[in-house]
C-alpha cells in the first residue's frame, strides 16, 4: 500500500528572537501538509519569559555549537528535512545545506558567511550592541527597544516595532557576531559554508531590501559565492521589507513565497512511500 509521510521542516531563528516567534510559520506549514517544528538554540529556555530571566544559559554559544545542535536533530530524522532560517539562523541553514543535510533550504536575511566582503554602515551600527564591547564575546546581550527599532523594525511602524520587541526579544549570545565579523581573517572560521557543493538540495536566499541588520548587498554577495555550484540556488528580494520580515504583519507574504518556491522544487507537504 501507499502511505503519505509529511515532509519535515525545521525553522531556525537568529539573534534576539525566541524560537516561538516561528509559530505562525509552523502553523501555516502544518496546514499545508508539512510536519514543522522550531527547536530553540542550545540551552534556550522554552519561553520568552524564561529566556529573559536566564540570559547566562546561552552565553558564549557559538556558530559551531548551534550548527552541531541542529545537525543532531536532523540526523535523528528518517529523511533530510526542509530547513528555513532567519538571520543567523539563515547562516546555520546554509551550513547545514552545504553539509548535504537538507532536502531544500531557505535562508532569509542570512547573516554574512565567510567570503562576503561588503560591510555597510547600517550593518555595523546594528551589530554595535554586541560588537561595541570585546568583553561581550562570552556574554549574552540584549537589545534596547531603540536598537531593535533600528536593526529590525525600521521598515514598519514604531508602534508595531515596539509590539514585536515586547513580545519576542530575548538575550542572545554575542559570540556568533564576533565570529562572523572576523570570518574573512580566519582560515577555519565557523562562518565558512561549503558553497561549492553540487549535490545539496535547492537553496533560496531571501533579502529584505530595507534591512539594516543584513543589508541587501550582503545577501547578494552571498548569492554570488554559489556561482561555482551546479545545485539550484536562487535569490528573492522584497523591496519594502526590513529584518523583521519573518515576524511582522507582512510575514505571510514571505512564508507563502517560500511555500511556492518549495513546490516549484518538487517539495510539498507529503511524500508517498511504498509499504508492504
Structure description:
- This protein has 276 residues and is α/β, with parallel strands linked by helices.
- The chain has a single domain (2-269), classed as Alpha/Beta hydrolase fold, catalytic domain (Rossmann fold), CATH 3.40.50.
- Helix content is 36%, strand content 16%.
- The protein contains 10 helices and 10 strands.
- It has helices at residues 23-31, 48-53, 63-75, 88-98, 121-131, 145-151, 158-168, 175-181, 216-224, 251-264, and strands at residues 2-6, 8-12, 35-37, 82-86, 104-108, 140-141, 172-173, 203-208, 233-238, 270-274.
- The strands form 3 sheets. The chain has a 6-stranded parallel sheet with strand order 3-2-4-5-8-9, with helices on both faces.
- Helix 9 links the parallel strand 8 (203-208) and strand 9.
- Helix 1 packs across helix 10.
- It is globular.
- It starts with a strand and ends with a strand.
- Mean pLDDT is 95; it is low at 272-276.
Amino acid at each position: 500500500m501507499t502511505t503519505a509521510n509529511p515532509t519535515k521542516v525545521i525553522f531556525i531563528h537568529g539573534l534576539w528572537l525566541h524560537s516561538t516567534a516561528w509559530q505562525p510559520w509552523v502553523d501555516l506549514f502544518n496546514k499545508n501538509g508539512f510536519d514543522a517544528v522550531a527547536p530553540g538554540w542550545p540551552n534556550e529556555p522554552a519561553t520568552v519569559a524564561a529566556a529573559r530571566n536566564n540570559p547566562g544559559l546561552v552565553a558564549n554559544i557559538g556558530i559551531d555549537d548551534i550548527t552541531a545542535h541542529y545537525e543532531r536533530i536532523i540526523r535523528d530524522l528518517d529523511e533530510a528535512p526542509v530547513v528555513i532560517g532567519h538571520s543567523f539562523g539563515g547562516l546555520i541553514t546554509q551550513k547545514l545545506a552545504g553539509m548535504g543535510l537538507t532536502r531544500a533550504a531557505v535562508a532569509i536575511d542570512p547573516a554574512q558567511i565567510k567570503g562576503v566582503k561588503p560591510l555597510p554602515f547600517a550593518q555595523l551600527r546594528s551589530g554595535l550592541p554586541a560588537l561595541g564591547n570585546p568583553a561581550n564575546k562570552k556574554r549574552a546581550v540584549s537589545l534596547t527597544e531603540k536598537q531593535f527599532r533600528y536593526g529590525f523594525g525600521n521598515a514598519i511602524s514604531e508602534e508595531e516595532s515596539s509590539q514585536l520587541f515586547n513580545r519576542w526579544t530575548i538575550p542572545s549570545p554575542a559570540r556568533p557576531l564576533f565570529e562572523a565579523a572576523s570570518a574573512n581573517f580566519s582560515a577555519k572560521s565557523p562562518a565558512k559554508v561549503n558553497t561549492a557543493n553540487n549535490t545539496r538540495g535547492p537553496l533560496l536566499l531571501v533579502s529584505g531590501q530595507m534591512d539594516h541588520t543584513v543589508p541587501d548587498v550582503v545577501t547578494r554577495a552571498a548569492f554570488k559565492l554559489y556561482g561555482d555550484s551546479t545545485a539550484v540556488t536562487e535569490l528573492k528580494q522584497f523591496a519594502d521589507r526590513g529584518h523583521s520580515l519573518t515576524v511582522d504583519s507582512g510575514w505571510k507574504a514571505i512564508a507563502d513565497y517560500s511555500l511556492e518556491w518549495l513546490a516549484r522544487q518538487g517539495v510539498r507537504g507529503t511524500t508517498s512511500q511504498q509499504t508492504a
